[in-house]
């Protein structure tokens, strides 16, 4: 059972959430305070963890600075700086501990073409912990992209084509390769909007895995999703089913 209660008063917001599952009860109390270009979020849970986030907008024009930490974990602090431009975004995040890790990401592009990359650097070892790069080309009726990931160990190319201007029906294809194992995966799929509230999706790969999704908007902003996965090369195996309900006020 999930219960939530909100109190809003001017720039202040107080939220209380409680969850009971079996004989276990958990909960938290969160508060948010806004003043000009500054937002402070504080959350306290039943395990006495205190999470604090400070967000300041436009210290320098077109930037957002975010500082966060969680007590009693003194090594959880992180400082993040984001820069936004009409055709570019840059983000830098640094862990606030004795052996800080640095994450960098950047995106450049236009409504038609976009390029992005991210990397992680461990200052103690002096090594890159991750790096990924990708580019995409978008047209009114289609979109194609290529992503190089896993520190250059994998590459993925995909293409989506929409059959009508309202994007009610579309088809997609994807090719993925892992260089370390020489494994290739080919996936084809599609989606079709039965009406303005209901969407059906399906995909099948060369390993015989068939996945389906039914998405229905029960009320505005509240979506019911039913999913399933079958192994068409081993029909004796029990299929997997999933059910989720997203409710938004």
Automatic annotation (TrEMBL):
Q: Which residues form a coiled coil?
A: none
The UniProt entry, under InterPro entries, shows:
Porin_dom_sf, Porin_Euk, Porin_Euk/Tom40
Recorded GO cellular component terms are: mitochondrial outer membrane; pore complex
Q: Name one Pfam family in it.
A: Porin_3
**Record carries keyword Transport:** yes
Looking up Gene3D superfamilies in the UniProt record yields: Porin (2.40.160.10)
Q: Which PANTHER family does the entry link to?
A: MITOCHONDRIAL OUTER MEMBRANE PROTEIN PORIN 5-RELATED, VOLTAGE-DEPENDENT ANION-SELECTIVE CHANNEL
Protein localization: Membrane
Q: Which family does it belong to?
A: Belongs to the eukaryotic mitochondrial porin (TC 1.B.8.1) family.
Q: Which UniProt keywords apply?
A: Ion transport, Membrane, Porin, Transmembrane, Transmembrane beta strand, Transport
The molecular function terms of the Gene Ontology recorded here are:
porin activity; voltage-gated monoatomic anion channel activity
Physiological role: Forms a channel through the cell membrane that allows diffusion of small hydrophilic molecules. The channel adopts an open conformation at low or zero membrane potential and a closed conformation at potentials above 30-40 mV. The open state has a weak anion selectivity whereas the closed state is cation-selective.
- Where is this protein primarily located? membrane
Query: What is this protein called in UniProt?
Result: Voltage-dependent anion-selective channel protein
């Amino acid at each position: 059972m999930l219960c939530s209660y909100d109190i809003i008063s001017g720039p202040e917001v107080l939220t209380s959430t409680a969850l009971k599952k079996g004989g276990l009860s958990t909960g938290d109390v969160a508060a948010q305070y806004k003043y000009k270009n500054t937002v402070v979020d504080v959350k306290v849970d039943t395990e006495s963890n205190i999470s604090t986030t400070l967000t300041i907008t436009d210290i320098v024009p077109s930037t957002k600075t975010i500082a966060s930490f969680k007590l009693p974990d003194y090594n959880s602090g992180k400082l993040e700086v984001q820069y936004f431009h009409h055709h570019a975004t840059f983000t830098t995040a640094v862990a606030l501990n004795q052996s800080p890790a640095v994450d960098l990401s950047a995106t450049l592009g236009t409504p038609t073409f976009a390029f992005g990359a991210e990397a992680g650097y461990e200052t103690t070892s002096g090594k890159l912990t991750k790096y990924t790069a990708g580019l995409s080309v978008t047209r009114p009726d289609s979109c194609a992209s290529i992503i190089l990931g896993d520190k250059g160990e994998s590459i993925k190319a995909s293409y989506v084509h929409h059959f009508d201007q309202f994007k009610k029906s579309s088809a997609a294809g994807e090719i993925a390769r892992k260089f370390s194992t020489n494994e290739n995966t080919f996936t084809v799929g599609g989606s079709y909007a039965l009406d303005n509230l209901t969407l059906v999706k399906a995909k099948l790969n060369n390993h015989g895995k068939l996945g389906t999704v039914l998405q229905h908007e029960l009320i505005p902003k509240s979506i019911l999703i039913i999913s399933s996965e079958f192994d068409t090369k081993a029909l004796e195996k029990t299929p997997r089913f999933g059910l989720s309900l997203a409710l938004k006020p």
